[in-house]
Amino acid sequence: MAEGIRRPSSAPAIVRPSVRLGALPNLPSHVATMFGLSVAGYGVALAVVTGLQASSDAAINADRAPLAGTIDAISARHDRLEGSLRRASDAYAAAAAGYQAVADRLSTVDDGLVSLAASVKAVDGASKALPASIALPPVVRSVRAAPRAVTHATTGGSGAP
What we know:
Oligomer: single chain
Mean pLDDT: 81
Low-confidence stretches: none
Order of helices and strands: HH
Helix content: 55-70%
Radius of gyration: 60 Å
């Protein structure tokens, strides 16, 4: 079977040229020169455009410098204002909690006052009924006289009581 696959000897052999890797084909010198000049021209054009863009960016940044300073100052004031508002909010929350604690105790005080008012009313009613139902003895005021101390005539000191 291998005989059927073989090429007949009368067929011409195909000659393939040997190719080296990394080798450039032979170009005429004027084509290589034009190619090199166009690459160099493109590089110069990119450098010019980059320089123009950099100078334009520098001019824009210089024009915006005062505005950037103003924005920084506004941002700093905003941060200070935010801190002040946070402190005020915390103080307000603390005051609200204190007022709520007082309000919670007010109901207890109110209940105590109602109980005290009832007690005062009962005592007032009982005190008004006392003179009519019970004869109270009159209040007598008494004064006790104390003996005077004897003094010595020569020294002026006080004597024993």
